[in-house]
Amino acid sequence: MASPRISKRFVRVWQRNLTVYQKMWKILFLPPLLEPLFYLLAFGVGLAVMVGGVYYRGSEVSYVSFIAPALIAINIMYNAFFENTYASFVRMYFQKTFDAMMATPLSLEEIITGEIMWGATKSVIATAIMLAVVSLFGLVKYPEGLLIIPLAFLGGVAFGAIGMFFTSIVKTIEMFNLPIFLFVTPMFLFSGTFFPLENLPLWAQKLALAFPLTHLVKLTRSFSLGLIDSALLWSCAYLLLFCLIWFPLAISGMRHRLIK
Amino acid sequence: MQYVLEVESLKKTFDGFVAVDGISFRVSHGECFGILGPNGAGKTSTIRMIYGFSPITSGNIKVFGLSISQGWRTIKSRIGVCQQDNNLDPDLTVLQNLEIFARYFDMPKDQALHRADQLLKFIALDNRKNSTVTDLSGGMMRRLVLARALINNPDLLILDEPTTGLDPQSRHQVWNKLEDLRAKGLSVLLTTHYMEEASRLCDRLVIMDRGRILVEGKPMDLIKEHVGQDVIEVAEPGDELQKYIRSGSMVYEDLGHRLIIYGHEGEKLFRTISDEYCKEGCILRMATLEDVFLKLTGRELRE
Q1: What is the ipTM metric for this complex?
Q2: How many CB atoms lie within 10 A of CB B284?
Q3: Is B103 an 8 Å CB contact of chain A?
Q4: With an 8 Å Cβ cutoff, are A3 and B74 in contact?
Q5: CA pair distance A89, A97, nearest whole angstrom
Q6: Residue A19: which of B54, B100, B105 has the nearest Cβ?
Q7: For residue B135, what are the contacts with CB-CB under 8 A and spacing of at least 6?
Q8: What is the CATH topology of the domain spanning B3-223?
Q9: Residue-wise DSSP of B178-220
Q10: Could you say which of A40, B140, B142, B209 would form a disulfide bridge with B136 (CB–CB 3.0 to 4.6 Å)?
Q11: Where residue B31 falls among pLDDT bands split at 50, 70, 90?
Q12: DSSP β-bridge partners for residue B17
């Protein structure tokens, strides 16, 4: 009987990336530490004066506690998406790391799974750091806020998988500008991140519901404000569905690209 | 088990282009087997199918008696592969390159460290353990790729052009190491387009061109059979000589500015030629594998 294409050996690929991360952690952990501080300073101090409070799910919340969880959601997206686009592309295309791995007992499926799991892990690491930072300002309600950690993994897999799919189709590294310009940036702005979705015209609100970030923001915000209800399951289900679609597409795209 | 590798009617096509066109060969235990051929002959395609990197279009490959489609993971855990590119991990140090590669084989950490230590001594890089791989010279990188391919103590070592792009010193050093391994009884499959490498290392070899095997045999036998013992080379041959050569039943190649005559009794013929037709620019040498190779695959460029 043939060996299965995916086994727990994918952890070996994940471990490789962790080893590299450990060598550079002092540099790598700075962005998630400093970025929320910059944002909170700019938006919390600078913009909040003009905005005041925001009406969210029936109650008024301060603008800072409105955007803090959105910043975490954006970071979940960025960490996994950039890891599985630029960083994975460098490993695949320039460093030929995947080629070397494929001459070992690892399968292509395991390599790609390990990469996506690593991207999601980076999301979790960044989320943990950011969560700690914003908690210092009393912007997160506990224990509900802790749910953001496992959520970071789910969101990381979703964005990592679609990132990996783009990696399987771009010809050059510059071409990542396209998905960033057409996919990531619109989400960054229009997923209920910096203003409530309800401020958009109805058609745009409906469109925004297709964005995975919309659901991720909704979840991080509800968790950090402590507003848990069963409707949130729909958002979780959407993210899960997004993973279930893009993960296999990423693997088959990579198979198409690398196996000749 | 008698054969470490059995290849049967192996075929590979890429979008209609036939890269490997029904080749068959077998490699015995402890043998060093070479695949020679010009660029684009199908060497790398063949090797990639053997180590399970690319799927087979048709035919059969058995490694250690297992078919590659069924036993790919077992096979891949028992072979060592030196790919053509230096795909060392630039994010890691010399030692980490070996350590982390060992992890891909599920090797326990202390065993991996022990093995890495041995191998770094073997390739004389034990003093560079903590260097970044990008700081290494081309020859050092190549040796490290070789060490990495040996990390799992493989039963079959597959080398795809192991010395391409190396300076003569580094090349000889790699050959030395490969000879050590061969002496220890490791089975080796090697592709190359350096004839000296093939003659020196291979017990048996095939010459491939355009996806097919042209000849198979021991290097010395192939030389004797296809070009004889001696070769006479004449630079800028005169008309008289041309006429003389054509009148006999000699096997020769006319390259315009150079005439190459193959034969078994070269010495006698060489005396005649050098005495009567040319005083200089005429040499007698032993036939080499390169003569066989060029005779069989032709002299036109392959790009």
Answers
A1: 0.89
A2: 16
A3: yes
A4: yes
A5: 10
A6: B100
A7: none
A8: Rossmann fold (3.40.50)
A9: HHHHHHTT-EEEEEES-HHHHHHH-SEEEEEETTEEEEEE-HH
A10: B140
A11: very high
A12: B14
Cβ–Cβ below 8 Å for A100 and B91: no
Question: Under an 8 A CB cutoff, do A16 and B100 touch?
Answer: yes
CA distance B32 to B3: 12
Q: Kindly state whether A3 is in contact with chain B, defined as any CB-CB distance less than 8 angstroms.
A: yes
Contacting A residues, span 69-98, partner chain B, CB-CB under 8 Å: 95-97
Distance from CA of B71 to the nearest CA of A (A): 6
Classify A226 in phi/psi space as left (phi over 0), alpha (psi -120 to 50) or beta: left
Closest CA to A78 of A194, A197, A235, A183: A183
Give the whole-angstrom CA distance, residue B90 versus residue A20: 10
Q: What are B14's two structure tokens?
A: 């890429």
Does the distance separating the beta carbons of B74 and A95 come in below 8 Å? no
The answer for residues whose C-beta is within 8 angstroms of residue A191's C-beta and 6 or more apart is: A70, A73, A197, A208, A211, A213, A214, A216, A217
Q: Encoding tokens for residue B177?
A: 């190491």
Whole-number Å distance between alpha carbons of B286 and B303: 29
pLDDT at A242: 97
CA distance B210 to B40: 7
Interface of A with B in 120-159 (CB under 8 A): none
A255 near B CB under 8 A: no
Ranges of each domain in chain B: 3-223, 228-286
Would you mind telling me the total number of residues written for chain B in this entry?
303
Shortest Cα distance, chain A CAs vs residue B102, angstroms:
9
Could you give phi then psi for residue B100, rounded to 5 degrees?
Answer: -75, -30
Q: What is the pLDDT of residues A201-230, one digit of tens each?
A: 999 999 999 999 999 999 999 999 999 999
The stretch A191-195 carries a mean pLDDT of 93
Q: Is A16 on the interface with B (CB under 8 A)?
A: yes
CA distance A208 to B225: 75
CA distance B245 to B187: 45
Listed in sequence order, the residues at least 6 apart from B18 whose beta carbon sits closer than 8 Å to its beta carbon are B11, B12, B211
C-alpha distances (whole Å) from A54 to each of A50, A195, B220 are 11, 8, 87
- B77 → chain A, closest CA residue: A105
For B181-196, write each residue's pLDDT tens digit: 999 999 999 998 888 8
